[in-house]
Every structure is written in structure tokens, then in C-alpha cells.
Write a structure and sequence with these properties.
The chain has 415 residues and is of the alpha+beta class. The chain is 31% helix and 15% strand.
């Protein structure tokens, strides 16, 4: 394969404008001492009330942190304090940071087209699934079931792929939005099939390495230099593996696939993630980016809108009553959450990015308090910024305009 991606990320050119003539650097987002204290108090209260044992919160404009703070302990059973460089299991943030970025890079280089069908890569696929397209996997409109339990199925990686290619669909492609792990498991397999590399090899060579990320990777204890368990926040006890999970992926499906899959498995810290998000959305101050301006613009758009639910390519969108980004980020925001207690939300135009890393599952996945905390946190942060110029609109107006009869099956259309 030609060395296109390395040339792409090292090529310097003007950073793209996402939706206006302004670039992220043209905004001047600041948090004064009073605002920082208010955010600190909010997070300290979350720790004290048991939302999570500890967390790291980063607020950035483009690739520059304007606020970063560590809170609490790494575990409920340990007095070790969280540090700014503590590494967390990102869970489903893997979907957008690695898998979505990889698919867009392959689209740019002509190795696939987003409207290609699954059968173009896997001719052995069942008749029922052969008309599912790549973009439908990315927007969660494939009709595939939400959950699979691979660790309960016998067999190796090849058997897993065969199992996924013969799943029983729950809807026709393009008819429903159902957030589905199988979608991104299959996208990971597509990347591997095209490149002849494992997904972690691909990530190291074409994303993590070119981006200069030092504390990011799959199977972190094996692949991140000078990283020990003491630098990683543990997750929870796993009944299937019969042990406390610490330094290994929390997600059972990913663990069954040896810690590497398209829907989970990535570990990182806040400093690396700020750089990575900026490079995906063409916000990097040095104008070194992982995707072309055209791809970054596509990722910032909404392609599905039904019953108030907006989704982009891989990325979730704001403007949703249930959005973890809260009210103020609005429909221009792109983000995602991770089951372990992580989230990223960014406004590509202004470069505002909020990264929350926690291990809320440490005391057991039954703790769901983070669902209420996330939107409240983002509302607080946005309201405290000194320059409110992100051009959002009240969510009620966005929902009122939503059309329940979207034609997802006809191809990518900006909504």
C-alpha cells in the first residue's frame, strides 16, 4: 500500500474552515479563575456523591487546553489519586477516534467508497445483509441488532466474522436508527481486510504515530512505552474473566478479540485526546491534520434525523433532547460517549472541545449517575465561557423541524 496517510498527516496547508470563514484560532474562549473554581466544585461534588471514584476533565480550544484538572481517586478501593496523565479505557470512543477516522482515510485514498456494500468486501455475507452499505454502518442505520455477546460464542476471530456476517437483521437497511456494536465491529474488519493489517497495527502506523500520541493505544501495557498499571484507572470486576479488570479492555467483546476491535479497546489520556480531536477536525494549530478538509467537513455534518435523534458518520450529534452534550452545544456539535465513563464533545467551528475521562464502572456498571451528570456539566462549561459565539439555537426549535420520515436508504444526505 502506498504511504499516503503519512504524507497526508505531514502535509502542511491551511487548516479547513468547517462551516464559516472563521477558524478555531479566530475565537477567544477563556475561563477565568471564578469559572474554573465553579467547574472544580461541580466535579468535586460528583466525586463525593459517587458518580465516579475520580476523573480528568479537559477543556480545549483546538489543540490547546484552556482548562485541565484531575479529581478524586483511581479506584473506590485505592487511595491513589488521579493525575492529569492518568490513562483511561475509552470504550466506544474507539468507534470515532480510530475506526471512523480509518474509514474516512480509506475513502480519501480510493480504497473504498462510503456507499459501498458489505458484500463488496465480504462476498460470503448472508443474503439478508448484503445490501447494507458502509455509511449505514457508520450512521447506525444498518438494521443490525444493538448487542452481540461474542464471548459466549465458540471460535476464533474468523468465526466471529462469520457470525457477524450471518446475524439476523432487526430492520431493513436505512429504516431505523439503532446504536449497534456490530456496525463498528464490521467496520473494523473492513479496515483490516483492505489493508492487510490488524486494526491496532493500522492505528499505530496511520493515526497514533503520525499524530505524535505518546500514551494512546490498544492493549496499553504491551504497546505504550513506560506505562504501568499504576498509571491506568481500573474498571470493574469481570465475572466472565473472573478478575478485576485493570490495564485490560473492559468491553467483553473486545476482550474476546484479544483487546482489539472496531468498537472498543483504545486507551488514552486527556493530553493525547486533545491533539487527536484537533487533528481529526482540522483544528490543529500547526495545521497538521489526519484528514483532508473535505473529510473533516463531512464528519461535522448530520446525516440522520428522526424523532429528534441526530447522527453523523460515526459521531453523535448535538441538538438531541437526550444528548449528553446538554442544551447549549446544539446541532453543530460532534461527540460520543464511552460505556466506562468517558466522553468527547467538540464544536468544530470554534474548536471548543470538552473531554471527560472517568471509570464510573469501577464500583459496578449499575451506577448510571453519569447519564445525568454529562449534560449538566456541558451546560455549565458553555455558560461560563467568556465568548459565547458558537451560533447555537434552542433545541426545541431543532426538534420541531425534525422529519419523522427520513429516507436513510437513498444515500448520504445532509440533514
Amino acid at each position: 500500500m502506498r504511504n499516503y496517510f503519512k504524507k497526508q498527516v505531514s502535509r502542511k496547508g491551511k487548516a479547513s474552515k468547517i462551516s464559516s470563514s472563521k477558524k478555531a484560532r479566530d475565537y477567544n474562549l477563556k475561563l477565568d479563575k471564578v469559572a474554573c473554581n465553579e467547574i472544580n466544585q461541580f466535579m468535586e461534588t460528583a466525586v463525593e456523591s459517587g458518580v465516579f471514584p475520580g476523573a480528568v476533565l479537559g477543556i480545549a480550544q483546538g489543540d490547546k487546553l484552556i482548562y485541565s484538572q484531575a479529581f478524586g481517586r483511581k479506584s473506590y478501593d485505592d487511595d491513589s489519586r488521579v493525575k492529569l496523565d492518568t490513562v483511561y479505557d475509552l470504550a466506544s470512543l474507539t468507534k470515532v477516534l480510530i475506526t471512523t477516522t480509518g474509514i474516512m482515510q480509506l475513502n480519501e485514498t480510493g480504497r473504498l467508497n462510503l456507499h459501498d456494500y458489505l458484500k463488496d468486501f465480504f462476498p460470503e455475507i448472508s443474503k439478508e445483509l448484503e445490501d447494507i452499505r458502509v455509511d449505514q454502518l457508520m450512521t447506525h442505520t444498518s438494521g443490525l441488532p444493538a448487542i452481540v455477546q461474542l464471548w459466549k460464542e465458540p471460535g476464533d476471530k474468523e468465526a466471529v466474522l462469520e457470525y457477524l456476517l450471518n446475524l439476523e437483521p432487526e430492520a431493513e437497511p436505512g429504516q431505523q436508527i439503532v446504536y449497534s456494536d456490530p456496525n463498528f465491529l464490521l467496520l473494523g474488519f473492513i479496515i483490516e481486510k483492505i489493508l492487510g493489517l490488524s486494526l491496532d497495527e493500522y492505528a499505530r502506523e496511520y493515526i497514533i504515530g503520525p499524530a505524535g500520541l505518546k500514551k494512546t493505544g490498544f492493549n496499553p501495557l504491551d504497546n505504550i512505552e513506560d506505562l504501568t498499571k499504576e498509571n491506568i484507572a481500573p474498571t470493574e470486576y469481570c465475572d466472565w474473566r473472573e478478575k478485576q479488570i485493570h490495564g485490560e479492555v473492559h468491553d467483553e467483546n473486545c476482550a474476546f478479540l484479544d483487546g482489539v476491535s472496531g468498537q472498543a479497546g483504545l486507551f488514552s489520556n486527556v493530553n493525547d485526546l486533545v491533539k487527536l480531536v484537533a487533528m481529526i477536525f482540522n483544528q490543529d494549530e500547526k495545521e497538521i491534520n489526519l484528514l483532508s478538509p473535505a473529510s473533516s467537513r463531512i464528519l461535522a455534518r448530520t446525516y440522520t434525523r428522526k424523532n429528534g435523534e441526530r447522527r453523523g458518520l460515526g459521531w453523535d450529534k448535538g441538538g438531541n433532547i437526550r444528548s449528553s452534550s446538554g442544551i447549549y452545544f446544539g446541532s453543530k456539535a460532534s461527540g460520543h460517549t464511552g460505556f466506562t465513563g468517558t466522553s468527547i464533545w467538540t464544536l468544530p467551528e470554534s474548536g471548543l472541545t470538552v473531554i471527560l475521562l472517568s471509570n464510573r464502572v469501577n464500583g459496578g456498571r449499575e451506577n448510571q449517575e453519569i447519564i445525568k451528570l454529562r449534560p449538566r456539566l456541558h451546560n455549565l462549561i458553555y455558560s461560563l465561557l467568556s465568548e459565547d459565539n458558537h451560533n447555537t439555537e434552542p433545541i426545541g426549535f431543532q426538534i420541531a423541524r425534525d422529519n419523522d420520515n427520513n429516507d436513510f436508504s437513498s444515500g448520504l444526505k445532509e440533514r
